[in-house]
Amino acid sequence: MPNKKKKRSSKPGKSKQRVEKESIDQNLPSARATQEAAHDQAAAQTPPSSRKVPPPPKQFPVFEKAYRNIDFLTSPHARSIRVQCEMTEPEVRFREQQVENTIVLFGSARIPPPSIAKKNLKKIEDEVAESKSLSREQKRNLDHTRRMIRSAHYYQEATQLSHDLTKWSLDNIKPGPKRFYICSGGGPGIMEAASRGAYEAGGKSVGLGISLPFEQHLNVYTTPELGFEFHYFFVRKYWFLYLAKALVVFPGGFGTLDELFEMLTLVQTQKTQKYMPVVLYGSEFWNEVINFEALVDWGVISKEDLDLFRVSDSVDETRDYLIEELTRYYL
């Protein structure tokens, strides 16, 4: 077979001179690069004295210490510091005042003194009599004030109990760490009654307040040097338990029940090793509100757990029981 000859390309090839020129053009810098290089060279040759330098500051900078920075201390990052403050600052004051033993009184912030309850009821009754008709709001107010009349005697009895226990401590225990002090949440209602009884007996009382939207200050009967306002509920509860040697719980709502059951749980589980007599004051209230026997019947507590507390309706009985127990175990 005859050999086929390769066809030559019809496209003309690049001349050697043209290829060399394109190679040289690709290696040359662009116009912009040339300008930047010239600018850098000129800047490098400029004497340092001719550069624009800002004048030195005339004053030394002032920086705020972290422990004085309110924005930082109130931020989420400093929460652990705030908790530590609520643990440490009360401890310092308790040591200064030699407070190591407290008798804690819990109870509703809504229960008024009998005189105030009667005054409020008369006011509502007079309004209803004048209007000659009973509106929905008046009926609601009338029902509420009648409930307060029903429970107002607990305010008076809490005041008397606090007075008697404070008087016993003042008369029988010399000043110092062994003396007992009434302790409450520092607010209105039963808490005010507790502070008031100690005040009228000539003694001091501890007020462990909590910042709430509807309770903005401690009651006027709280001893100023033993009054506190906490932000954290759990730290407040710690101080209730830590110094408590006895507990009396008057009728109350969610807060009272929460504090009662937490105290009973710590005693039941022996997380607190100290002996602490607990009295539920007001059998009419406690027997209606909580069925402790049903807890035993359902098997969720043992029969022996009912011995962790006793129920009382008498100031004298409660006072004598607590004095006997506190004398036996702590004096």
Strand content: 5-15%
Which CATH class of the largest domain is shown? Alpha Beta
Report the strand count.
7
Poorly predicted tracts of residues = none
Helix content: 40-55%
What's the tally of helices? Answer: 13
What is the strand arrangement across the widest sheet? 4-3-2-1-5-6-7
Radius of gyration: 40 Å
Order of helices and strands: HHHHEHHHEHEEHEHEHHEH
Structure report:
There is one protein chain. The protein has 331 residues and is an alpha/beta fold. The protein folds into 2 domains: 76-112 and 153-330, Rossmann fold, CATH 3.40.50.450; 114-151, no CATH class. The chain has helices spanning 16-27, 31-45, 70-73, 79-96, 114-131, 136-151, 153-172, 190-200, 233-243, 254-268, 283-289, 292-297, 315-330; strands at 101-106, 180-184, 205-210, 227-230, 244-249, 278-281, 310-312. A 7-stranded parallel sheet has the order 4-3-2-1-5-6-7, with helices on both faces. Helix 7 runs parallel beside helix 8 (190-200). The protein starts with 15 loop residues before the first helix and ends with a helix.
Topology:
Blueprint: H1 16-27, H2 31-45, H3 70-73, H4 79-96, E1 101-106, H5 114-131, H6 136-151, H7 153-172, E2 180-184, H8 190-200, E3 205-210, E4 227-230, H9 233-243, E5 244-249, H10 254-268, E6 278-281, H11 283-289, H12 292-297, E7 310-312, H13 315-330
Parallel strand pairs: 1-2, 1-5, 2-3, 3-4, 5-6, 6-7
Helix pairs in contact: 5-6, 7-8, 7-13
